[in-house]
Amino acid sequence: MTFLRDLSTLTGRLLLRNFRMPAFLVISIVQPIIWLLLFGQLFSGVTRLAGFGTDNYMEFLAPGLAIMSALFGSAYSGMALLMDHDRAILDRLLVTPASRGAVIGAYVAQSGLTVIVQASVILVVGMLLGADIGGGVAGFLVVLVAGSLLGAGFGALSNALALHVMRHDAIIAIMNFIILPLTFLSSMMMAPSGMPDWIRFAAGFNPVNWAVELARAAFFGSAPGALLVPAAALVLFTLVCVLIAVRSFQRFMAKA
């Protein structure tokens, strides 16, 4: 109970800091809408190809872009930890009675929760533009869960990276090097049947693609069995990333 109380308090601090910045609110809401409108118009005719499961590209695109927003929204979350370190806020937190696990856990939890805003906006706007969510409310919620799991996983990796490199520019460069290839090695914007064989093979090992498959299956209202494999793989990925972040934080405290 103490851990959960500390985790909720520290996570709330980070969320409140984000929502106090008007620029953050505007970008979080407007950017996903721009992505949806641009990609939706650019690739609107691609559903003439087989394998999309729908003639409405907006239905195919909306859950994929919800996952994209989770990926890009969490990849740089290590910057918040570095900001607190540079301002000595992290040092002050470490001398309080707060659980050490809650301190690093708050940065990871903040990543998972923040992306819910962007993912929700994308799904709602997608439905306003004609996407029919076959999975109903349950499907909507599963998409948010998939985005949160991916966001927490990459948020944990970003924070682990921050604890090792301790440089803002290095985080940006390294995460860009990682997330851009993962984006295009997934079925985020293209059906698997339209991919080259080697990309389709690589997508099978891509956590971003696991999240996309889970979100899209739930959005379309597929049978629950279709959700099990990508859900299990995504949960495992997130747990491994969280363990990496915890281990990195332990090493950081040992050196402090």
Keywords:
256 residues; mainly alpha
Largest sheet: none
Order of helical and strand elements: HHHHHHHHHHH
The portion of residues assigned to helices is over 70%
Q: Rounded to an integer, what's the Rg over CA atoms? A: 19 Å
Provide an overview of this structure.
By secondary structure, the protein is mainly alpha-helical. It has one domain (2-255). Helices cover 78% and strands 0% of the residues. The protein contains 11 helices and no strands. The protein has helices at residues 2-19, 22-42, 57-74, 78-86, 89-94, 100-128, 136-165, 168-184, 197-203, 207-220, 225-255. Helix 2 (22-42) packs across helix 6 (100-128), helix 3 crosses helix 10 (207-220) and helix 6 (100-128) runs antiparallel to helix 11.
List the helices and strands and how they pair.
Blueprint: H1 2-19, H2 22-42, H3 57-74, H4 78-86, H5 89-94, H6 100-128, H7 136-165, H8 168-184, H9 197-203, H10 207-220, H11 225-255
Helix pairs in contact: 1-6, 2-3, 2-6, 3-6, 3-7, 3-10, 4-7, 6-7, 6-11, 7-8, 7-10, 7-11, 10-11
Précis, in short:
By secondary structure, this protein is mainly α. 78% of the residues lie in helices and 0% in strands.
